[in-house]
Amino acid sequence: MKYFIVALICCCSVAQAQSYKKVHRKAIMADSHNDLLTASIEKNVLIDQDLKGKTHSDLNRFKEAGVDVQLFSVWCDGDKLQPYSWANREIDTLYAVAKRNPKKIEIVETYDALKKAVRKNKLAAMFGVEGGHMIEDDINKIDLLYNRGVRYMTLTWNNSTSWASSAMDETKLKNDPTAKLGLNDFGKQVVQRMNQLGMMVDLSHVGEKTFWDAIQTTTKPVLVSHSNAYTLCPVFRNLKDDQIDAVGKNGGVIQLNFYSAFIDSSFKNREKVFLQNKQAEIKELIANGMQKEYAQAIVVEKYKEESLAIQPQMSMLLDHLDYIVNRIGVDHVGMGSDFDGISASPRELTDVTSYPLITKALLEKGYSKKDVTKIMGGNLLRVMKAQETK
Fold it and tell me: pTM of the full predicted structure?
């Protein structure tokens, strides 16, 4: 009898594994934020090579992970000279990859083209510009970027622009009565032009005043490409309850960020100690021309076991998902990993191939197959499609 019970348990385990994998394969898996383009330049690697141990992602691992749609972040910090040229360099990088791998990846510009690429078993790729400073105060550059496949722009990164204040800067200036916060007239014109083109307005990284000005200006559902819930992890990059509610009323979507410090408020202190012990190596990498975020990521990868020990578990990320779903419903949350732009993710989510573990966990938590399909990509696709309506 005991052998029968063991066999039955084994059969059930195999069936459950096949079940969640089937759900994951059937869903159109769409991630709104991956920094592989910047990482490939910073680390001097090619996206279509095997980059295991060097990055969170590469072209073959997207396939292995069941990722069907990837919006690639186009990013540089606020100190980069000629950021618009840098943006085009990153865009050129992906066009070169697509040209070398026409059977694996296609850069798409419309919702219909996206669906066709997915049906052909290709990775459907678009771009998201992470930081309005990359248009260099020239509204015409929005059109130029749109014509190259950019389908969202984050109004600010951590640095403010002349027309929009960032979350980081608003936090620093909240007690300064002379500070000019939010969107000015040009900033509102930027949002309006994005609406006209069909480019998603991304409200990750923006300050609260900018957030509310953008919500009141936009005529389309907004994107929050990589942010979490402030109530669970009170850091400037996460959304407060009234902001979460506003995204729900707007019909937008909040895409969860996998960065440990935006999931677990106690992580930052553990990370600070870890990085302090590695400062000499980090400074050497920066001195050789690497941007700070990627210097830290290199060190984290080098000391992987030590880094994993301080990272939160995936369940804490899913707590943010549950929190948002309980406030505004399952139609307004998705995945915006920030892979290859972060130095630490939840322990279980070591790279893009870990995505099926999220599907498995959601099913185990009681989410229906239909709801899991929405979370893993359907909600983002809905918001993307809504941009194309006039």
Answer: 0.92
